[in-house]
Design a protein that fits this description.
The protein is an alpha+beta fold and 298 residues long. It has helices at residues 2-5, 8-25, 28-44, 53-77, 102-109, 113-124, 129-136, 140-157, 165-181, 184-190, 215-231, 282-290, and strands spanning 191-200, 212-213, 235-242, 245-252, 256-265, 268-275.
Length: 298
Amino acid sequence: MSKVTSDPIFSELRPRLVRLAYRMLGSVADAEDIVQDSWLRWLAADRAEVREPAAFLRTIVIRLCLNELKSVRRRRESYVGSWLPEPIFDPEDGDAADDITMPLMLALERLSPLERAAFLLHDVFGMDFDGVSLAIGREAAACRKLASRARAHVTAARPRFAIGKEQGLKLAAAFFTASRTGDMASLQALLSEDVVVYADGGGRVPTSQRPHIGLSATMRLHEQLAGIFREQPSQLIHYAIINGLPGFVTIEGGNVVQTTALQIEREKVVAIYCIRNPDKLQHIIGTVESGISITTNC
């Protein structure tokens, strides 16, 4: 990517392009590939004809993502167990696009590709509907309807009671301690009655194939895990904001890297998202194994 860094326009826009592609595809590796392809098209473009580089490049990225989603959807249909988007970590630049949390990513996943594109371009990345129309090949009025339908679904998934970063990480630490020490009373006190546990192993490592729904099911799961944790203690790497939610990175069973993100409302955990699929953790496994602090984000 040395040529990319030599182009100041593309270098400046690249982080936002990666974020756009990631939010379309849910994959860091796929997003990086899409942006690399957009760089090749940027090289071939007649710069004299490009009035707004940001809009031009977002249009390229969206079109590439829409093409990629055809094959992505086929892969998702045969996915083993729960599918979750790859974990990303809290960016430090305060980009408005970072409002897309794990629950919102899952809400986006339920939209059609065009609805997702219209919503992201207009509501998240600030493109007007004429620009959205050019990007996805639909009339501006149709783009408004696509974005409106998407917005209704996404609004329902937004956290109703926001929690501060410091308080969120404090609760994540309490959750880690209670779950790993087998303190079931303290753990239960942290969970809501309708808590749900999602685990994504992709068929590569052992996980539950279906979500655990409700407090009773979640407590039974952690009672089973307590014995495993006693025999093979979790190695805590660090606490972090993961896909917009407080959580932590661990090594489980001696060699399985795992991210755990907690959706918290009214100081109760309402959803637990565990990612164990090594294919989704390649961008952080190397840093974990070498002991380097994880800074990957998009």
